[in-house]
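Supplementary notes (optional reading)

For those who missed the lab, this is the record we used. Protein: MFS transporter. Length: 492 residues.
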Amino acid sequence: MQPSISASALRRPRALVPVLVSLGMLVAVVSSLGAPLIPTIAAQDHVSVSTAQWALTVTMLVGAVATPVMGRLGDGPHRKNVILTGLAAVLAGSVLAALPLGFVWLLAGRALQGVGMGLVPLAIATARDALPPARARSAVATLSLTTAAGIGLGYPITGLFAEYLGMAAGFWFAAATAAAALAATVLVVPAPPHRPATPMDVPGGLLLAGGMAALLIALAEGERWGWSSLPLLGLAAATVILLGGWIAHSLHAAHPLVRIRLVRDRGVLLANLTTMVGGVGTYLLISLVTRYVQTPTSAGYGFGASIVVTGLLLVPFSAASLVTGRLVRALGSAATPARMLPLGCLLSLGALVCFLLGRSSLWGIGAMMFLAGLGVGVTFAVTPGLIVGGVPAEETGSAMSFNQVVKYIGYSTGSALSAVILQAATAPGDALPADDGYRTAGLAGCTAFVITGILAVVLTRVGPRDRPSVVAAGRATLAVAGDEPRPEPSRP
């Protein structure tokens, strides 16, 4: 039997999806408070730009560690309490970062904000349990897009605050948003269906935390330390040892933090590989665009745009991703992964080709970001259905949390890769890279999407039969009505 939340348990059923989406948008706002504010943080707190970069790194680091832990806790009977705890941490962190207490306290606040990065998988698990199958499919796909689509909202809002109201205003805005989400969650989000509590996998959590910390610190500090330096090589070795140990432990533990064996399902494997490699290309493109348009025209390229204008150029990306996600769901039985994932990769590849060939106007860059949003919308509308269709309902939070961690790895790698390539294209004594550096970085992004497309074709078409459409799979795997046994997830 598959436990579910009855309709009578939903005190405000129409408000549930907007509240869950607001959790995803809060994550987008929190994550966007890092990059645009780094120069302001460096100037205000009298630290170097590389040191101020930790205001972004520490949030990603804590988020990568907290997300799978929150996902595992949220698969038991305490999901609502875990969501409320995450929101309380974001609220406290936002207030701490807003107060003029110095750089160390700002980092502590940003670390607490990172706990909120684990809210999206819990929102997806709640939608799967609480909503009828048709609405659950739509909500899951929308929630998967919020962190990417929210970039186009968070960046311009952050830019407005930084340029006109000061750095603290952005953190006070995040605090107000977290407080509103906290109140809405108390009133609207139901308790999860009754499931036995699962013991927390403390050794697995420590191994994953150590491995992720080593990986993200290496990506964040590689440019400054040197990619062949001993500290970086030590971190690389620690990453391999700790994450390898975590995988070995998870395969044999009775109650692992993430059930690695679930990745054997071809759909789950495809979703995670697509998310990670596609995330490299997506964040590489976003990093290139935000840096390119802010470059002074005296460099021979660039537009000298403000943070606000730079943020506004990302709005088409968000709008296109949300609209396309809805269109994919409207396609119904035609929306098979074998068709949609290669299409999403092709659209994203087209955006990078446009960046390589036609970045001579702000209008052209805005159109290019719209095309990139189309690709992300197609991809992210399909991958959640692959994961939900390949895992039991009681593992949804854990499986989606692992997918979020994979996404953070892709994003961090893309951001670091863009910085490395542009630094290599910067002549000694110069402050800005040559324009050819952007061409090289764009080609690296094209490579990422070509690899993603090949993976999508191979894993969806090789096998005895094709995986059914996202909608058809959803009808089977999201049927959470009380007396219906859960059908086995379809496999390629």
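If you only remember one thing from this example: The domain at 262-479+486-492 is CATH 1.20.1250.20 (Growth Hormone; Chain: A;).
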